[in-house]
Write a structure and sequence with these properties.
- The chain is of the alpha/beta class.
- 38% of the residues lie in helices and 23% in strands.
- The chain is built from six helices and seven strands.
- Helix 1 (17-33) links the parallel strand 1 and strand 2.
- Helix 4 runs parallel beside helix 6.
Length: 154
Amino acid sequence: MDVPRVGPVVVGIDGSANAQRALLIAGRHAESTEAHLVVVHALGLTELIDGEHVPTFDHQDEIAEHVDRWCDALREEGLDDFEIRLVHGPPVDAMLRTAHDDGASVIIVGRRGAGNRPELRLGSTAHQIVEHSHCPVLVIPPIGRSTVAGDPAG
C-alpha cells in the first residue's frame, strides 16, 4: 500500500531575521515529514537592495541572488532539498497562490507585528494568510518575544 506523500511546506522569506528563523523551522519540518520545501519571495514593483529601492523588473537576477544567499542558512543546516520561487504580487497573494497551486500541507511565516494592541501583534501579512489559507499556517514569533498569553511584551 502506497502512503500518500505529504504536500509541500511553503515558507515566505523577505530577508528579515524572523523570516530567516521561519525558513530554518520550515526546512526542519519539511525534512522531518519528508515534504518538499518551497521557499517563496514575493516580488512587488520595487525591491530594497543594499538600502535602495530599485525597480523589480530591472533587477530580477540580483534579487534572485539575494534570495539564494538567504537560503544559505538552510544549506548550513545540511538541508538542500528545496525550491526557490520568486512570485510576482503582494506577499499574501504570492504565498496563498503558491500554497493552493502546490497543494501545500502547511504555510510557515514569520510574525512581524508590533505595537501594544493584541490585534496588531500578528502582523497584517500573517493575519491575512491565516484568515484565507486552505491549509494550516504556522506563524513564528520573533525571538525574545514573550509567549505568555496576556503578557504585554508578547
